[in-house]
Amino acid sequence: MRIKLLKFEKTEMMRENSITKVCFFEGNNDKVYADVKERVLKLLELNPWLASRLIKANKEVMMEFDETKTPVELIDQILFQDNEMCIDESMEYAQMQKAIEKHVVSTGNKLLKTGDFVFRVTLISHEINNTSGLALIFSLSHVPADGYTYYKLLNAFFDPAQMTAMNYTRNFEAVGKIEAFIGKTNYRFTSSAPMIVNVLKNLLFGKKVEYFSRFVDEEKVGTIKDAYAADEKSEFPFISTNDVITSSHCNATSSRLCLSAINLRNRIEGMGSEDAGNYEFVLLLDQKHAGTSEAIRRTLSSKGQFEPNDGKLPGVLEALKCNITLVTNASSFIEDYKLSELKQILHLPIFNPKSIFCDFAAIYKAKDGRRAIMFFGKKTSVTHYLANTELGETVCESLF
Q1: Which one of 3.30.420.40, 3.40.50.1460, 3.10.20.70, 3.30.559.10 gives the CATH number of domain 2-162?
Q2: pTM of this prediction?
Q3: How much is the pLDDT for 303?
Q4: Measured torsion, CA atoms of residues 51, 57, 59, 61, in degrees rounded to the nearest 10
Q5: Minimal CA–CA distance to 126: which of 117, 135, 118?
Q6: Domain boundaries defined on the chain
């Protein structure tokens, strides 16, 4: 079975790193591998496209999976157990990322050459935070999946009752409506030549990235939200935690534009909750629309077409050098997980610091339902960022 991909899936997404998370569990038992295997088999049964390879047919990149192969025949090429690898207290985050790289799905361009599958699950050991146990690496190519697709599968893996068959047939008609929904000017700016040059310049010549991961200080955020709700001059009844965090990120990084990822499912007709693929885009937020939490709330509350910059985007010369930042929020997708009755002690997204091209904040839930931010500072120092955002203690002393 061949799956035709969306235009940006077979172009931009081919260069993107896979979506990968590591879930750490305390303890071990003899049932874990069998339990993991059973869950992966069920995922493959419902979603055979996870056992796809990337191919070129008639000079066009596509995904292809073999309908005649059963999940049992494929499992040994997707599920792995590395008994020699251990993430321990000696590793910082970047060292861990480098160490597990061989168990992470490659970029689409590399998959096209190697013929490996777009999906991979690996069990290794860990010794962090004064505990020991198992770590599970769940890795999926960005070509067939956005963050929503990824977390829907990850949540289903840890809670088989949530497992469903996702629709892998792309809705090209619905994707054609994104430009009008986001706004023509904003949509085209994201792939404009000045924007691309800006990214490449920062990637190749910018300073070395600093990074950390810390829990959100919910008390500080709560104080800001309560003060807003109590103010009679407030435009909305409330602001969300995401509004506060995103606005703080934009201000702390002095961003000219902040690229904020948005899930378009159930916002655009034809994009539904069971659709697998890349149905997310980015909003372009300037200071007028991201400088305050209320401004973020106003933008996200917009009905119909998004035009967050009123066409006042940087001109060519400014776009070549202006400060662009990025923020993603997966905290609403993430749940606390259990595996064979083992308790999760940490959940971490995996990014290669060397591939970071701008100040970047990933909002997620690290453990016990607590929100955290993983920040990569390309231009903004960690010290400055911490002093101007609502963050508390580190999520893991040894890794960060």
Answers
A1: 3.30.559.10
A2: 0.95
A3: 66
A4: -20
A5: 135
A6: 2-162, 172-332+353-394
Domains 2-162 and 172-332+353-394 share a fold: yes
Q: Under CATH, what is the fold of the domain 172-332+353-394? A: Chloramphenicol Acetyltransferase (3.30.559)
Q: Quick one: which of 322, 205, 217 has its CA closest to 259?
A: 322
Which segments of the chain have a pLDDT < 50? none
- pLDDT tens readout for residues 290-306: 899 999 999 888 766 66
State the first-to-last Cα distance of the chain, in angstroms, to the nearest integer. Answer: 44
Tokens of 11: 């172009």
The reported pLDDT for the residue numbered 28 is 86
